[in-house]
Design goal:
Chain A: Pathway: Carbohydrate metabolism; tricarboxylic acid cycle; fumarate from succinate (bacterial route): step 1/1. Chain A: It catalyses: a quinone + succinate = fumarate + a quinol. Chain A: It is found in: Cell inner membrane. The complex is a heterodimer of chains A (597) and B (78). Chain A is α/β, with parallel strands linked by helices and 597 residues long. Chain B has one domain: DNA polymerase, domain 1 (Orthogonal Bundle), CATH 1.10.150.250. Chain B is built from five helices and no strands. The radius of gyration of chain B is 11 Å and the shape is globular. The chains are: A alpha/beta (597), B mainly alpha (78). Bound molecules: flavin-adenine dinucleotide.
């Protein structure tokens, strides 16, 4: 089979917030840039973000980037790299104001400045009082952001390849990255995108879990491609669970519902949060509420015939309050839980929401991996940004609104690094190996010829159930150990998936089979990394590592203040130190402390 | 020119989980029975922004385009 080849200065996989921000940097520098995306750019998952984007503009309350940096390091439970965190917090105002200039319709204060509102975990004066740091465009922040960036890219002549799915990373014998192979859905043909630089911005992989707030598109393709090509995945044990996803559907019910007086109840109708967090009750932080809910369920006080969820009750609020203050919640509940929350409580469970780990990068967006004694050696020609990347600014736990900021800062920074590396002569168009497309062609041929195989749906379902049961909110040593062997056997089955529809064009069954290959890599990385980390930290909470005077919150800095690196080949782990030194000499490191709010 | 069903099926992949769930039900239950005319209406509807589409499906914002009403009706059926 002959494979067509296209050549660019840079190829970007992904057209969400991170991909579009990176593309803009390149196209405006005059580089020939291709952006590949599975769906139309403004249908990327960034559209779902409502809460806002963090920046210490100080428009509504006094603020500065030092405070933002402190909050982010503390939020990360000290696993975040302080150089990258300083970089992100210092750049926040610049990238948000830039976005404003691109036409982003931010909410305004009376005197015309960007309006800012408070968000969990963000504070003034090193944790003293809440700060208004989130910039939003009504409840459509992500949507508005994508539109502003997309328009700007069109103006800058970025070349979009819409409904193209990248399949595999192309590397040469030295390990340099030379581009990707991709499948055009409309024709079913595979092409090579040969480039001096390749940027991954493929978003998260929340669909590895049974209960997820993520849309179906979040299949971790970038992570799968990187892992198969020998690049490690960093800190994949850390997943943020949102306490209130609709039971059975996953759709997120915003924190605002509890803010307006919503109460969580168990099977006997008890307001159980009074026992776990006597002061903040239902408004305690995401991880505390999630764990309390799971404890109720595990101890047999869950609701429903299978006692597998709890209830979020707003029946005591007036219908007017619900309609006026909580728009959208009623519709979601009626559609997906079949209950009108004015009359009956909403069944909810903690739901996988955000992936803190990803493809390891430095603060410049260059992908880094261990090589010749350097644990952070840049992989020539390879960059990553957004939820698929791990810079690492979120460490063990992300703060709300810091993800949209991450897209802007590291999307831009990855773009700038490509321009710099090109100008300094570090990047060139290297010859393609003769077998550049062979891995992808073999994967497609395997699917084409598979008989007596497994259904993609069944294998996917078993993966999601295994992840949910064995690597959920609360983690237990025996469940993790069983989980490792179970996920490895699911992974074996994924090698034998069979699709009945063999048509060449617009074959969604084939697309889903290829996506499953990527999800499986992420699932293995998560389970294996989680089993190995014997402490509790941030979102990774083990039953056998509880709070104690020696190990506050179960965290063990002596042994575990380090990043996990999972390698697909051999299912192997390595570790590397956390960068505790900020970027600038005159900035003091944020010293280790117990994370309490 | 007839519309490729696979293409329309793929375009039912959306940015909001709410819509993915609604479309999953629709793809299972209704999609294979759509006529070419209905398929063309659906394809037109799928050009909408996700938040607008979701508002029409859940009824918080009534659909005002005649051509889309039948599909919105099917999508809204639980
Ligand atoms: C319900 C919800 C609400 C949220 N609210 C907020 C919030 O208020 N504030 C905040 O900061 N964060 C929020 N987050 C998190 C945040 O929205 C995401 O982390 C962020 O949008 C991810 O952006 P991205 O650019 O990395 O990826 P995405 O926006 O997911 O884009 C990924 C892109 O990659 C493309 N792609 C993927 N695989 C391939 C492939 N194989 N070939 C070609 N293209 C491919 C896709 O087509 C898409 O264009 C929220 C998340 C959820 C689920």
């Amino acid at each position: 089979m002959t494979v067509a080849k296209r050549t660019f200065d840079a190829v970007i996989v992904g057209a969400g917030g991170a991909g579009l921000r990176a593309a803009l940097q390149l196209s405006e520098s005059g580089l020939k840039t291709a952006v590949l995306t599975k769906v139309f750019p403004t249908r990327s998952h960034t559209v779902a973000a409502q809460g806002g984007v963090a920046a210490s503009l100080g428009n509504s309350t006094e603020d500065n980037w030092h405070w933002h940096m402190y909050d982010t390091v503390k939020g990360s439970d000290w696993l975040g790299d302080q150089d990258a965190i300083e970089f992100m917090c210092r750049k926040a105002n610049e990238v948000v104001v830039e976005l404003e200039h691109y036409g982003m319709p931010f909410d305004r204060t009376d005197n015309g400045k960007i309006y800012q509102r408070p968000f969990g975990g963000h504070s003034q004066n090193y944790g003293q009082s809440p700060v208004s740091r989130s910039c939003a465009a009504a409840d459509r922040t992500g949507h508005a952001m994508l539109h502003a960036l997309y328009q700007r890219n069109v103006r800058a002549n970025t070349q979009f390849f819409v409904e193209w799915m990248a399949l595999d990373l192309i590397r040469n014998a030295d390990g340099d990255v030379l581009g990707v192979t991709a499948l055009e859905m409309e024709t079913g043909e595979v092409s090579i995108f040969h480039a001096k630089a390749t940027i991954f911005a493929t978003g998260g992989a929340g669909r590895i879990f049974h209960s997820s707030t993520n849309a179906f598109i979040n299949t971790g393709d970038g992570l799968g491609m990187a892992a198969r090509a020998g690049v490690p995945l960093e800190d994949m044990e850390f997943w943020q669970f949102h306490p209130t996803g609709v039971f059975g559907a996953g759709v997120l019910i915003t924190e605002g519902v509890r803010g307006e007086g919503g109460i969580l109840r168990n099977a006997s109708g008890e307001r159980f949060m009074e026992r776990y967090a006597p002061n903040l009750k239902d408004l305690a932080s995401r991880d505390v509420v999630s764990r309390s809910m799971v404890t109720e369920i595990n101890e047999g006080r869950g609701c429903g015939p299978d006692k597998d969820h709890v209830l979020l009750d707003i029946t005591h609020l007036s219908p007017e309050t619900i309609m006026k203050r909580l728009p959208g919640i009623r519709e979601i509940s009626i559609q997906f839980a079949g209950v009108d929350p004015i009359k009956a409580p909403i069944p909810v469970v903690p739901t996988a929401h955000y992936q803190m780990g990803g493809i390891p990068t430095n603060y410049k967006g260059q992908v880094v991996a261990p090589k010749g004694g350097n644990v952070n050696a840049p992989v020539t020609g390879f960059y990553a940004a957004g939820e698929c990347a791990c810079a690492s600014v979120h460490g063990a736990n992300r703060l709300g609104t810091n993800s949209l900021l991450d897209l802007l800062v590291f999307g831009k920074s990855a773009g700038e690094s490509v321009v710099e590396d090109l100008n300094s002569g570090n990047l060139s168009l290297k010859p393609l190996p003769a077998d550049a497309a062979d891995v992808s062609l073999a994967r497609l041929a395997r699917l084409e010829g598979q008989t007596n195989g497994e259904s993609v749906f069944d294998v996917g379902l078993d993966m999601r159930r295994t992840m949910q049961k064995h690597a959920g909110v609360f983690r237990f040593d025996n469940l993790l150990k069983e989980g490792v062997s179970q996920i490895l056997s699911v992974a074996e089955r994924a090698k034998r998936t069979e699709i009945k529809d063999k048509s060449k064009v617009w074959n969604t069954a084939r697309t889903e089979a290829l996506e499953l290959d990527n999800l499986i890599e992420v699932a293995k990385a998560t389970m294996v990394s989680a089993e190995a980390r014997k402490e509790s930290r941030g979102a990774h909470v083990r039953d056998d590592a509880p709070d104690s005077p020696e190990f506050p919150n179960g965290r063990n800095d002596n042994e575990w203040l380090k990043h996990t690196l999972w390698f697909s080949e051999g299912n192997r782990l390595e570790y590397k130190p956390v960068t505790m030194r900020p970027l600038s000499q005159d900035v003091e490191p944020i010293a280790l402390a117990k994370r309490t709010y | 020119m007839s519309i490729n069903r696979g293409r329309v099926r793929w375009q039912c992949r959306r940015a909001l989980l709410e819509l993915d769930l609604v479309f999953a039900r629709f793809l299972e239950r209704d999609f294979d029975r759509l006529t070419d005319g209905q398929l063309a209406d659906l394809e037109d509807l799928l050009r909408c922004e996700d938040h607008d589409l979701w508002a029409m499906v859940n009824g918080s914002n009534p659909c005002e385009v005649d051509r889309w009403k039948e599909m919105i009706g099917l999508l809204s059926q639980r």
